[in-house]
Amino acid sequence: MQRLAVLIVTILFLSATVVLAVPAKKTIEFTKSPMGVVTFDGTLHKEAGNKCKDCHNTEMFPKMKQGTVTITMDEIYAGNLCGVCHNGDRAFDAKSNCARCHVKK
Ligand code: HEC
Ligand code: HEC
Ligand code: HEC
Predict the structure, then answer these.
(1) Are 40 and 30 in contact (CB under 8 A)?
(2) 27 Cβ partners below 8 Å, 6+ apart?
(3) What pLDDT shows up at residue 20?
(4) What is the mean pLDDT of residues 3-32?
(5) Which residues lie closer than 8 Å to 66 by C-beta, 6 or more apart?
(6) Ligand 2 atom with minimal separation from the 61 CA
(7) Which of 22, 76, 92, 93 could bond to 83 as cystine, CB 3.0-4.6 Å?
(8) Which of 41, 23, 30 is nearest to 105 (CA)?
(9) What is the pLDDT of residues 35-94, one digit of tens each?
(10) Is the distance from CB of 65 to CB of 28 less than 8 angstroms?
(11) Closest residue (by CA) to atom 25 of ligand 2?
């Protein structure tokens, strides 16, 4: 009985870490902009207090898969996608901080 409880706790613990480890250790690179590569850091965004659903919802990034949403600055400036937060309110403003996202390599 006790071993069964330990097993269940272990399985719950492992499945929880698998779910959380995906974005936390992951960085995604967006390479299409002439302004330079944008590196999205999953750990940084998680530590900033964001939950998966803050971004993975029907309005923003429905799929947990890179390349399913086309990101443009028009969308960001309009307060969509990354711009839901990068508007100077929840996070730094996209309009005056190009180089905090775009890095020329
Ligand atoms: C601040 C926004 C944000 C948060 C919070 C976030 N994600 Fe993501 N995630 C993204 C974006 C943007 C993409 C790329 C989507 C696209 O290109 O269509 C992505 C992609 C992914 C991918 C695919 C990676 C790949 O290489 O294809 C996985 C898996 C994922 N997220 C899991 C999670 C999980 C699990 C959480 C919560 C612990 C989470 N994400 C939280 C923004 C976020
Ligand atoms: C749910 C809110 C949210 C969304 C959506 C979001 N971010 Fe962020 N992001 C933050 C917060 C909070 C920080 C921490 C810095 C701050 O407070 O301004 C941050 C920091 C960053 C940084 C670090 C910059 C630096 O100088 O430290 C980059 C780069 C970045 N975000 C890119 C993106 C990109 C690209 C997207 C869209 C794919 C995105 N973010 C979507 C909330 C968000
Ligand atoms: C919060 C992060 C972030 C900030 C700040 C940001 N961008 Fe972007 N930008 C992106 C992402 C993500 C893409 C999509 C790149 C891709 O798909 O490979 C993009 C795409 C672009 C593109 C190509 C697509 C389009 O809409 O024309 C240009 C040009 C661009 N950015 C210019 C800028 C300029 C100029 C600034 C500053 C005034 C800026 N960006 C600030 C994240 C950001």
Answers:
(1) yes
(2) 39, 40, 41, 42
(3) 46
(4) 64
(5) 28
(6) 38
(7) 76
(8) 30
(9) 999 999 999 999 999 999 999 999 999 999 999 999 999 999 999 999 999 999 999 999
(10) no
(11) 100
